[in-house]
Amino acid sequence: SSGVHADVTSFVINTLGAMQGGVVAMLLDAAGDHHAAHELGGPTRIRSLEIHYMRLARVGPIRATARTVGTIGSALLIRVELTDEGQDDQLATVASLVVEREDR
């Protein structure tokens, strides 16, 4: 598995004092894309992204960890879990991505 980290700063919080949903989505996308590029050996494109927001990520740092859970043809099915390390690694968001190698 592979992942990305981000801090919760004033630039990424919403009016509830938590990381903005759009920033969370970018972290999920980045973790999934990075993982797929490593697994597929080159540039990738994300075909689909399904996000389930379960709790607010308020403290940080925030960690998004990706792992392959299967394949769909030549594409990878990837699960990304976003946890808040500052809240005892509570699971905040999960995502499923279908990622394929980008053939230019």
Write up what this structure looks like:
- The protein has 1 helix and 5 strands, in the order E-H-E-E-E-E.
- By secondary structure, it is α+β, with helices and mostly antiparallel strands.
- A 5-stranded antiparallel β-sheet has the order 1-3-4-5-2, with helices on one face.
- It is elongated.
Key structural traits:
single chain; 104 residues; alpha+beta; 1 helix; elongated
Summarize the structure.
The protein has 104 residues and is of the alpha+beta class. The protein is 19% helix and 46% strand.
> What amount of the residues lies in strands?
over 45%
Please provide the ordered H/E string of secondary-structure elements: EHEEEE
In total, the number of strands is 5
Helices, by number, come to: 1
Write the topology of this structure.
Elements: E1 2-6, H1 21-40, E2 44-53, E3 62-72, E4 75-84, E5 90-101
Antiparallel strand pairs: 1-3, 2-5, 3-4, 4-5
